[in-house]
Amino acid sequence: MTTPDFVLRAVGHAYRSGGAALSGIDLTVEPGQHVAVVGANGSGKSTLLKMLDGLVFPTEGEILAFGAPLTEDALEDPAFRRDFRSRVGFVFQDADVQLFCASVLDELAFGPLQLGLAEDEVRRRVGDVAEHLRIEKLLDRPPYSLSGGEKKRVAIASVITMEPRVLLLDEPTSALDPRSQVWLLDVLDEWKREGRTVVMATHDLSAAAEAADRLVVLSEDHAVATDGTPEEVLTQRDLLLSVNLIHEHTHRHASTAHRHAHAHGPGADPDETHGHRHG
User: Fold this and answer.
1) Is this structure's pTM higher than 0.90?
2) Which CATH number goes with the domain that contains 73?
């Protein structure tokens, strides 16, 4: 039997102020799955992703990563930390938070060097990833001089050079122009063919439906509202309305009122329920 990449059992997280960020989350992520965690702003998507990366820890329940408890104490152990960090890569929503080196080349080399890899292996990885993501011409440039789309590519490349088995992506399509969004979806499709696990947090239903095998919907009370394939989830119109992922708009033609469902998120065409994406 294959060991899941992650198992969450009755996981909750409360802020120090007492407010809940997550409540009673039960979730299993199998190797190679592409999972989109979707929900309105403030539903707990980013907190959940940070938990999977060991940046935030449950205040109740437990998380297993690759069959072992993922705790603050566990990450204090150098062997566990190195193994976990080599397997899991996190791409933040805001690339500026992630990029801090003097050049793009240094950004791509930083992670592998922290893993203790030999310089020859680091150079090989940097060269391969830069070529693959088409950022060779950016290697000598400082990250602050890049466009938003270029920064996103560099942020992803800086994680890929560590060759993680699991990719965690927080709002990956945010601030991307349409061409960069297509590029990112192509990258996600390639990762799927390679068997990498992807967990992405997003409120963009269009991107989630295209990139993921499975949608986990968080409600505004920070619990799992539903979990299923994109086809199963996106037909639950009343549920999507209740969790604030789509909204109804009423307008009149003469004496007749019409209601249409609108879905949040950029870049999609109207569907059969007259849904429109807002950028």
Assistant:
1) no
2) 3.40.50.300
